[in-house]
Design goal:
Layout (H helix, E strand, L loop, with lengths): L2 E4 L3 H13 L5 E5 L11 H5 L11 H7 L3 E4 L3 E3 L3 E4 L2 E4 L2 E5 L9 E3 L3 H11 L4 E5 L5 H9 L4 E4 L7 H13 L3 E3 L9 E5 L19 E3 L11 E3 L3 E4 L5 E3 L3 H16 L9 E6 L2 E7 L2 H6 L4 E7 L8 E7 L4 E9 L6 H9 L4 H7 L13 H25 L1
Parallel strand pairs: 1-2, 1-7, 2-3, 7-14, 8-12, 9-10, 9-12, 10-11, 13-15
Antiparallel strand pairs: 4-5, 5-6, 15-16, 17-18, 18-21, 19-20, 20-21
Helix pairs in contact: 1-7, 10-11
């Protein structure tokens, strides 16, 4: 089987790399449009602002020599009805993957999706009097880079990854650092530089693909619904097994998508994809995994939630946990310090597995003799929510008995 991947960022390369770890036969072709390969898009704003020098996760040598992946320029590849032509070779019904990201058309707009665009941004920053970033909370990597480089920044705000009470903390952090929040994208002019990052409107793809809410809807294995192709990236929306869906809003989730695509292509099991959103701003990390309380109620759950503020060495942190009345963890939202982000992977696994709150409270309790408490803020949130769910169950059983 031939696999043709349209995309040259780290997610596209991860899909090829992970597949080749399992399957060494058959052809894998990456169709590239950039002169660079294997780059992390979330690092491009830091490169443009002069804060880092390297943004690649993969090299051509690793892909071509170690992974036996063929790299082709996009002008040498055409796609038709059920076939892909690479030079003089024709592949009938190959497994096709698109790395799809939003683009915003218009004068004075930089779509920050390739290294070439980041170089344009670096040149434009020295001339711009005002920088306006489009993409809402997904664009926090751009805002963080520009604030650290002392550029005045405005952000066109939108946020569906957090409940309003948690979103308020994020907005306050941004505004206290001088970031202006806008309700809509202003018209570009010579004094304003508009930087677009993420958002998920119609991507530029060589096929007419089905769109839902302006996005490409895929399953956990990245397969497009009602179309014999696959897609990953910020222009996708993942349909979860229970029937609801979430928009992909950060590059970390695109890497999870890539790993799931590779597993599906190799014929092995892969986990459910629930929302994985992580963004960093200055010394804080904002994370949202699974369902928010609003989404849980809309999905028909009799959900409960608890919000815990940090104390002591956790001061300045906030965790909100959402669970079903049966005591299963449905979602976690967190505002934490950067040095605490090692817990994020465990939190995500707990949400994906719908872990019971009692098990979660124990799994998230550190045993650290250097500190007086055996509870972390994450464990405390799980315990508080467990008490709330248990009290609700007892009250309901008493009502039934009466």
């Amino acid at each position: 089987m031939a696999i043709v991947i349209f995309g040259d960022d780290a997610a596209a390369c991860t899909a090829a790399h992970d597949y080749r770890k399992i399957v060494r036969r058959g052809e894998v072709i990456i169709v590239r449009s950039s002169s660079r390969i294997g780059y992390l898009r979330s690092l491009l704003p830091y490169y443009a602002a002069g804060l880092i020098e390297k943004f690649e996760l993969f090299s051509p040598f690793m892909l071509e020599v170690a992974d036996l992946v063929e790299l082709e320029r996009s002008e040498n590849v055409t796609i038709g009805d059920g076939e892909v032509r690479v030079g003089s070779r024709v592949y009938a019904k190959p497994l096709v993957l698109f790395s799809a990201w939003q683009r915003l058309e218009g004068a004075g707009v930089i779509n920050l999706d390739t290294p070439e665009e980041s170089e344009k941004l670096g040149e434009a920053l020295s001339k711009a009097k005002e920088v306006i970033v489009v993409g809402g909370i997904a664009a926090l990597p751009v805002v963080d880079a520009l604030v650290k480089a002392n550029y005045p920044v405005s952000l066109v705000w939108d946020d569906t990854c957090f409940d309003d009470d948690v979103s308020l903390f994020i907005r306050e952090d941004l505004q206290s650092s001088g970031v202006k929040l806008l309700a809509q994208t202003p018209a570009p002019n010579s004094a304003k530089l508009i930087v677009n990052y993420g958002g998920g409107t119609h991507p530029n793809l060589p096929l007419k693909l089905p769109l839902v809410n302006g996005r490409l809807r895929v399953d956990s294995g990245c397969r497009l619904l009602s179309c014999d192709a696959s897609a990953l990236g910020l222009a996708t929306e993942v349909l979860e097994p229970e029937g609801w869906s979430h928009a992909v809003r950060c590059e970390e989730e695109t890497l999870l998508q890539a790993a799931n695509f590779a597993a599906r292509a190799a014929g092995i099991a892969f986990p459910v994809l629930r929302r994985y959103f992580v963004a960093r701003f200055k010394d804080k990390v904002y994370a949202s995994f699974g369902l928010t309380m609003k989404e849980a109620e809309a999905a028909g759950y009799h959900a409960a939630a608890t919000r815990v503020r940090g104390w002591g060495r956790h001061s300045g942190t906030l965790v909100k946990a959402v669970a079903s009345r049966e005591g299963r963890l449905l979602g976690v939202q967190a505002v934490i310090r950067s040095e605490e982000d090692t817990a994020l992977g465990l939190l995500y696994v707990a949400v994906v597995s719908r872990i019971r709150l009692l098990e979660a409270s124990r799994a998230l309790s550190p045993i650290d003799p250097e500190h007086q408490t055996a509870d972390s803020i994450f464990s405390k949130a799980a315990k508080a929510l467990l008490r709330k769910v248990t009290i609700s169950k007892v009250a309901k059983s008493l009502q039934t008995a009466e």
